[in-house]
Specification:
Structural class of chain A: alpha/beta
CATH architecture of chain C: Orthogonal Bundle
CATH topology of chain C: MetI-like fold
CATH class of chain C: Mainly Alpha
Shape of chain A: globular
Largest interface: B-C, 56 and 47 residues
Number of domains of chain C: 1
Number of strands of chain A: 12
Number of helices of chain A: 12
CATH superfamily of the largest domain in chain A: P-loop containing nucleotide triphosphate hydrolases
Largest sheet of chain A: 8 strands, mixed
Helix content of chain A: 25-40%
Order of helices and strands of chain A: EEEHEEHEHHHHHEHEHEEHHHEE
Radius of gyration of chain A: 21 Å
Oligomer: heterotrimer
Largest sheet of chain C: none
Strand content of chain C: under 5%
Chains: A alpha/beta, B mainly alpha, C mainly alpha
CATH topology of the largest domain in chain A: Rossmann fold
Low-confidence stretches of chain C: 277-293
Number of strands of chain C: 0
CATH superfamily of chain C: MetI-like
Order of helices and strands of chain C: HHHHHHHHHHHH
Mean pLDDT of chain C: 83
Helix content of chain C: over 70%
Low-confidence stretches of chain A: none
Chain lengths: 329, 305, 293
């Protein structure tokens, strides 16, 4: 399958006065039609930054793109997003690539009805009249599973529940049938029961539209539920990648192992303690030498402190950036 | 929405009655109101006669209700100096004051809103610095001083504009601009900070993520949300303008209520000062009422209360 | 405390500097003033500043109609302004804070009544209240201070009331109540200490406002009598002689403005100091962005 979106060697840093800190280092990923790529990691590892970089929504004085390519390959055109003008990028946003954010309450404008907020995407990108756009909005609300869409379409965000707001966001995102949907922590702000419903909506929309989904989360359970492939990020780098089932069942990188081990599970015997990953994430100002994870790694060896392992093959299609990969345990 | 309206009207009424009550109390605070009318050494029986005439020998409560009754009928006393009903004299000059305050407000909005928006959008640029500088001076410089400086520059030095009088449009320019200084400072400062706040919100990022053009993001989403706190302050500013007009009119000899009232103070012509206060307070409250309704229209979250 | 001092930026420093200068003028007036402010020099009346064309030597900022030195009168004028300012703000602040605490403590119809009163007072521009009061009681500085106390307490009450409401809900107050601290004690020690900060901000800004109003009323002839040097009174003379003596208008006004700027800067700095910004849970990019604001 051809990649719809191909991110190659993306480097982003934060510039503060004279100093700059590398925030994303050599990120590469690709999205394919109808497939879900999960990106997982602790707060501050750069997952959201990657998403915002793709959308070119980074706040530009502090953030600076230092290198790389982001190639969007649609039928009939293949372009590097980093080379587009502002106007061209605006055409891509909302139409070819759409994004939904973590908190639907703050991401929706409180002074306009949700119908208007859906309609404006249609008006901007497909040139619909306001009346037609609102009609489509009603239909979109219906497809994301909101009951009585004719009434809901006129309601304001604060009149809806959290789950409905997130569904409305999905409706906005998918209004123009984009090829790619980026979802940044879409379920984190929701109750567990609502989470499952929203994920189901996303999956069914994906199936009917063939959208590629880039799903960012810190929740392994969501990854297990939704992702075909998964990337694990740490301190601005990818430390493990592979098919979701394989990475979850046989994590190769100690960090991934730690993330999975620190999850509570109903199968755990009573009295068994949760195992957190020791230590805390270092700040970007003090990135450890050698393997970035060595300061917290339970299996750290001498070479880890000095040499950066780079991605090493575990099996075909599964890589991890760890010196342990390829050695006998 | 209707209940909101009803509640606000009720509040308005209470404020009006309150203002009248306060004016009434102030009138009697100093002791014997006849002191305002008669020389100190007036004979006692003349004083008693006057007190009886004015109804001052009756219990305070009775006087209060009599006063309210008078006010409702439009009788706010008779000017000692002009020997005419005070309310009439005040209302005669009220349009001039409204004109001055209105022109100032318009000018303020025309300058402060764009400046505030631009200062927020182009933070830390020269526009931002200019705006901050204006807001500094506008909030600290006394309005009468600015007026005098204007006169110094535009009338005395350059002979461009007339110093006083109220006839022409030319005569309006300086007093309106002078009065507008403070408002420009306040409104611009608030617009800027409201815009800055709004521009950092998630829904602005979302609007950009939808691929909307920058003008649409700024005007349809940012400005619309920033307008909410700004509208509130515009109403309050108008009150400030009415108050500031009092002094400005004196500086420029503008024939409005303010100048009338200030002259009346030195003459101890209480009914005029009283009438001016009541009229201005009611006008201010009405404006606030309108602003509150506008606010409810702009902010859908309020409508449900 | 050290953090407080560290947070003084240029703007705050300028503010403190300006106010310090004015305060020093007021306190040290007899020693630093070049002339007696009421010393008349009729030969040199209405003389331009020494450095201007045809300037009178020895009078740095010129003289007025009676030959009195403008600089000296400005220095002495600071006394009137600061005296009026502090008296008025202490009076209105005390009343306002007290009523705010009462409203917050009792709640119910007491609070409703007080806040209604606040609404009513806010509907009348202060200068009119001052004018009404002065019509009745005569124009004077004392009456201005009284008028201020009668009217501007609302600025303090509004803030105090809102803060008390907020604080009441906080857990440490419930902790106090359950551990048996008397309600009176709670009000005065715990709550008052916590609301002192924002109230001080209001007080500082009110100081600037009083100075503007006092000068305004003196300008209108309704404040300080003309023999006592006051900035507003000097402006009144400036207006009469505006065609011939620009210095009589410019310098007193400048003094007023710089003093008010000083208080405003200090007030702004205090407001920023008392407003803690919490950085928990923000992502890196947010923190970087926020620190730029």
């Amino acid at each position: 399958m051809t990649a719809l979106l191909d991110v190659r060697n993306l480097k982003v840093s934060f510039v503060h006065g004279k100093q700059s800190r590398p925030a994303l280092d050599d990120i590469s990923l690709s999205l394919e039609r109808g497939r879900t790529l999960g990106v997982v990691g602790e707060s501050g590892c750069g997952k959201s930054l990657t998403a915002l970089s793709i959308m070119q929504l980074l706040p530009s004085p502090p953030a600076r793109i230092d290198g790389g390519e982001i190639v969007l390959a649609l039928p009939g055109s293949s372009r590097d997003l980093l080379k587009l003008t502002g106007k061209q990028m605006r055409n891509v946003r909302g139409r070819d690539i759409a994004m939904i954010f973590q908190d639907p309450m703050t991401s929706l404008d409180p002074v306009y009805s949700i119908g208007e907020q859906i309609a404006e995407v249609l008006i901007a990108h497909e040139g619909l009249s306001r009346a037609d756009a609102l009609k489509r909005a009603v239909e979109l609300l219906r497809t994301v599973g909101i009951s009585s869409p004719e009434q809901r379409v006129r309601q304001y965000p604060h009149e809806l529940s959290g789950g409905m707001r997130q569904r409305a966001m999905i409706a906005i995102a998918l209004a123009c049938k984009p090829a790619i949907l980026i979802a940044d922590e879409p379920t984190t702000a929701l109750d567990v029961t609502i989470q499952a419903q929203v994920l189901a909506v996303m999956r069914s929309m994906q199936q009917s539209l063939g959208t590629a989904l880039l799903l960012i989360t810190h929740d392994m359970g969501v990854i297990a539920e939704m992702a075909d492939e998964v990337l694990v990020m740490y301190l601005g780098r990818i430390v493990e990648r592979g098919a979701a089932t394989e990475v979850l069942e046989q994590p190769a990188h100690p960090y991934t192992q730690g993330l999975i081990a620190s999850l509570p599970s109903l199968d755990m015997p009573l009295g068994e303690r949760l195992v957190p990953i020791q230590g805390t994430v270092p700040s970007l100002a003090a990135i450890p030498s050698g393997c970035r994870f060595h300061t917290r790694c339970p299996h750290v060896m001498d070479i880890c402190r000095t040499d950066d392992p780079g991605m090493r093959a575990v099996t075909s299609g599964h890589e991890a950036a760890c010196w342990l990969v390829g050695r006998s345990p | 929405m209707i209940s909101f309206l009803v509640r606000r009207l009720w509040q308005f009424l209470i404020v009006v009655i309150g203002v009248i009550t306060i004016v009434f109390s102030l009138q009697h605070l100093s002791g014997d109101p006849t002191n305002l009318l008669l020389p100190i050494d007036a004979p006692a029986d003349v004083r008693t006669e006057l007190r009886h005439q004015l109804g001052l020998d009756q219990p305070l409560v009775v006087q209060y209700f009599r006063f309210i009754g008078d006010v409702v009928q439009g009788d706010l006393g008779t000017s000692y100096r002009f020997r005419q009903p005070a309310l009439g004299l005040v209302l005669e000059r009220f349009p001039a004051t409204l004109l001055l305050a209105g022109a100032s407000l318009l000018l303020s909005l025309l300058v402060a809103l764009p400046l505030g928006i631009l200062a927020a959008v182009y933070r830390n640029s020269w526009i931002d610095t200019l705006a901050t500088g204006i807001s500094l001076i506008g909030q600290a410089a006394p309005v009468y001083w600015i007026g005098l400086l204007f006169i110094l520059l535009f009338s005395v030095q350059l002979h461009w504009l007339p110093t006083m009088g109220g006839g022409s449009f030319a005569a309006l320019i300086m007093p309106a601009t002078t009065l507008a200084f403070y408002s420009i400072a306040r409104i611009m400062r608030l617009t800027r900070s409201a815009m800055l706040d709004v521009l950092h919100q998630d829904y602005i990022r979302m609007a950009r993520a939808k691929g909307l053009s920058e003008p649409v993001v700024l005007i349809k989403h940012a400005l619309r949300n920033a307008a909410i706190p700004v509208v509130t302050i515009i109403g309050l500013q108008f009150g400030g303008l009415l108050g500031g007009a009092v002094i400005t009119e004196t500086v420029f000899a503008w024939p409005g209520v303010g100048r009338l009232a200030v002259n009346a103070v030195s003459q101890r012509d209480f009914p005029i000062v009283q009438a001016a206060t009541v009229v201005i307070a009611i006008a201010f409250s009405l404006i606030n009422l309108v602003v509150d309704l506008l606010y409810a229209v702009l902010n859908p979250r309020v409508q449900l209360e | 405390m050290r953090r407080f001092l560290a947070s003084i930026d240029t703007k705050a420093a300028v503010g403190f500097g300006l106010v310090a200068i004015v305060a020093l003028c007021a306190i040290l007036a007899p020693w630093i003033s070049p002339y007696d402010p009421n010393a008349q020099d009729l030969l040199n009346s209405v003389a331009p500043p020494a450095w201007a064309p045809h300037g009178a030597a020895g009078h740095l900022l010129g003289t007025d109609r009676l030959g009195q030195d403008v600089l000296s009168r400005i220095i002495y004028g600071s006394r009137v302004s600061l005296l009026a300012a502090f008296a008025a703000v202490i009076a209105s602040g005390a009343i306002g804070t007290f009523l705010g605490l009462v409203a917050g403590y009792f709640g119910g119809w007491v609070a409703a009544f007080i806040m209604r009163l606040v609404d009513i007072m806010l509907a009348i521009p202060f200068i009119l209240i001052a004018l009404v009061f002065m019509t009745v009681s005569g124009p004077s500085l004392t009456n201005l201070v009284i008028a201020f106390a009668l009217a501007r307490w609302v600025q303090f009450t509004r803030i105090a009331y809102g803060l008390v409401l907020e604080l009441r809900e906080r857990e440490f107050i419930s902790a106090c109540i359950t551990s048996g601290v008397s309600k009176f004690d709670i009000l005065f020690r715990h709550i008052l200490i916590n609301i002192a900060g924002p109230l001080l901000v209001v007080a500082t800004l009110e100081l600037g406002f009083v100075i503007l109003i006092e000068a305004g009323l003196s300008f209108l002839g309704l404040g300080t009598p003309p023999e006592i040097p006051s900035w507003g009174g000097m402006l009144q003379e400036g207006r009469a002689l505006i065609n011939v003596a620009w210095w009589l208008t410019t310098f007193p006004g400048l003094a007023i403005m710089l003093t008010v700027v000083g208080f405003n800067f200090i007030g702004d700095w205090m407001r920023d100091s008392f407003d803690p910004r919490i950085n928990i849970g923000r992502s890196l990019s947010d923190q970087v962005v926020a620190s730029e604001r």
